[in-house]
């Protein structure tokens, strides 16, 4: 992720930034959000990436390693969003495969978490389709912008499951057009 991605990401997030069950940056707040993630990265708290489309190199989303706990050999993949033009194309599985390979094969993680809002059914389905298993629901876990509370659905992939998850993702990606 780099500040130079701000303009493209602001354009791509515009149609989806105000979906009530997400915390996506607004187009006007994109540069500040990139700066915030890069500051947190410099402090060792997160590892953010811009998602770029291969065909034209355009930045079309973000994803991040969060809650990095090297002493426990675990982390969370989250704060992911993909432009509507790239949703449903298999891109999410491709991105997650790369992130999971790094987490399990290079960082020697024993578990990787993925979390989403209870009401984000599309995200819940996408996480389950990766091969992650639902661990549970953290009721009233986060206070939301409008004063409501968010129930957080927690999924994970653990190290013994990783070979099968990898195979499932790899096989799925082989059959995309």
Please provide a written account of the structure:
The chain has 177 residues and is α+β, with helices and mostly antiparallel strands. It has a single domain, classed as Gcn5-related N-acetyltransferase (GNAT) (Aminopeptidase, 3-Layer(aba) Sandwich), CATH 3.40.630.30. The protein is 34% helix and 31% strand. It contains five helices and six strands. Strands 1-2-3-4-6-5 form a six-stranded mixed sheet, sandwiched between helices. Strand 3, helix 3 and strand 4 form a beta-alpha-beta unit. Helix 3 packs antiparallel against helix 5. The two termini are 28 Å apart.
List the helices and strands and how they pair.
Layout (H helix, E strand, L loop, with lengths): L5 H8 L16 H13 L4 E6 L6 E11 L4 E9 L8 H16 L4 E7 L3 H10 L2 E11 L5 E10 L3 H13 L3
Parallel strand pairs: 3-4
Antiparallel strand pairs: 1-2, 2-3, 4-6, 5-6
**Count of alpha and pi helical runs:** 5
| N→C terminal distance | 28 Å
Query: Helicity, in percent?
Result: 25-40%
Global outline? globular
Write down the secondary-structure element order: HHEEEHEHEEH
Question: What is the CATH-assigned architecture?
Answer: 3-Layer(aba) Sandwich
- Poorly predicted ranges (pLDDT <50, ≥5 residues)? none
Structural class: alpha+beta
CATH topology grouping: Aminopeptidase
The CATH class is identified as Alpha Beta
Largest sheet, in brief, is: 6 strands, mixed
- Share of β-strand residues: 25-35%
Q: How many DSSP-defined strands?
A: 6
Please give the radius of gyration in angstroms.
16 Å
Mean pLDDT: 96
Give the full name of the CATH homologous superfamily. Gcn5-related N-acetyltransferase (GNAT)
Q: Strand order within the widest sheet?
A: 1-2-3-4-6-5
How many structural units, i.e. domains?
A: 1
GO molecular function, one term: acyltransferase activity, transferring groups other than amino-acyl groups
Protein name: GNAT family N-acetyltransferase
Domain N-acetyltransferase: 1-160
InterPro entries: Acyl_CoA_acyltransferase (IPR016181), GNAT_dom (IPR000182)
């Amino acid at each position: 992720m780099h500040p130079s991605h701000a303009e493209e990401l602001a354009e791509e997030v515009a149609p989806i930034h105000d979906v009530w069950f997400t915390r996506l940056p607004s187009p006007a707040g994109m540069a500040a959000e990139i700066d915030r993630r890069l500051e947190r990265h410099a402090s060792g708290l997160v590892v953010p990436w811009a998602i770029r489309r291969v065909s034209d190199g355009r930045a079309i989303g973000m994803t991040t390693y969060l809650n990095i706990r090297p002493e426990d050999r675990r982390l969370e993949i989250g704060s992911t969003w993909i432009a509507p033009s790239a949703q449903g194309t298999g891109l999410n599985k491709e991105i997650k495969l790369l992130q999971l390979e790094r987490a399990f094969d290079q960082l020697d993680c024993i578990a990787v978490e993925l979390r989403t809002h209870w009401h984000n059914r599309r995200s819940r389905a996408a996480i389950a389709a990766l091969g992650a298993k639902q661990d549970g629901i953290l009721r009233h876990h986060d206070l939301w912008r409008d004063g409501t509370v968010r129930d957080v659905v927690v999924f994970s992939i653990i190290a013994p499951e990783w070979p099968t998850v990898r195979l499932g993702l790899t096989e799925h990606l082989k059959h995309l057009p």
